[in-house]
Amino acid sequence: MDRKYRAGSQFCGGGALSQQNAERERKDRLKRLALESIDLAKDPYLIRNHLGSYECKLCLTLHTNEANYLAHTQGKKHQQGLARRAHLEKIKAERDAALQPGGVLLAPQSKRLQRPTKKVRIGRPAYQVFKSRDTTTPDSSSQRCLTFELSFPEIEAALQPRHRFMSAFEQKVDTPPDRKYQYLLIAADPYETVAFKIPNEPIDKERFVTHWDGGDAKRFTLTLYFMDPPKVDDKNGEEGGTQ
Question: Is 62 helix (H, G, I), strand (E, B) or coil?
């Protein structure tokens, strides 16, 4: 390395080379080697603007000359941008390879979205409703009972009727909603969903029973009991009593 023209040194005498100057010369040497080995005309990310400076389309950075741009390409930001672009191009290539001749993209089975299909309904099922009271308890505390029997002879295979309770404020049929009632919904494909309007009172969960006869009868039975109303002690005048 020629050091005879270094500042602070004698003519034709090699001056002391500091670490900072050595690093600068090393970078300059690498830039010159890169200019000799790399063809910037084939770089798709290098453009020259109307001011004569250079721009990197990948990182959106501005550079004064080609050597400065080459130093930028060896940096962390540009290398991460190249890796990110390669990853995106790989994903695009996989999507293009998955396209069928008809132009339909087949996603993997695990990631394919299952869209709900519209099924043809065949009407409402036949049903019966029975009202009774529990005879095993005294008349003063006998529980009211409702039993629903529905027949689903055309129910789809391996399916079982489902049920749920709906409040008066959820439904949009009976308007305005009456908080004194609630609705029992029973559904089974391909039949229409049926709803029964029942009193909005607490239900005895311990005596709530459902049964599905999946044999030849295809009959669904649901039995529920309403909780006993709270007893009122007239002697103490808690409700309507006088002392």
Answer: strand
Q: CA 66, CA 47: separation in Å to the nearest integer?
A: 10
CA gap 126, 151 in Å, rounded: 5
> Which amino acid is residue 176, in one-letter code?
P
pLDDT in tens, 155-207: 888 889 999 999 999 988 888 989 999 999 999 988 999 999 999 999 998 88
User: How do residues 30-71 score in pLDDT, each as one tens digit?
Assistant: 777 777 777 777 888 888 888 888 899 899 899 888 878 888
Long-range Cβ pairs for the range 68-75 (8 Å, 24+): 69/40, 70/31, 70/34, 70/35, 70/38, 70/40, 71/27, 71/31, 73/43, 74/34
**Contact yes or no for 34/46 (Cβ under 8 A):** no
Contact of 148 with 129, CB cutoff 8 Å: yes
This model's pTM is above 0.85? no
Question: What does the alpha-carbon distance between residue 192 and residue 124 come to, in Å, rounded to a whole number?
Answer: 5
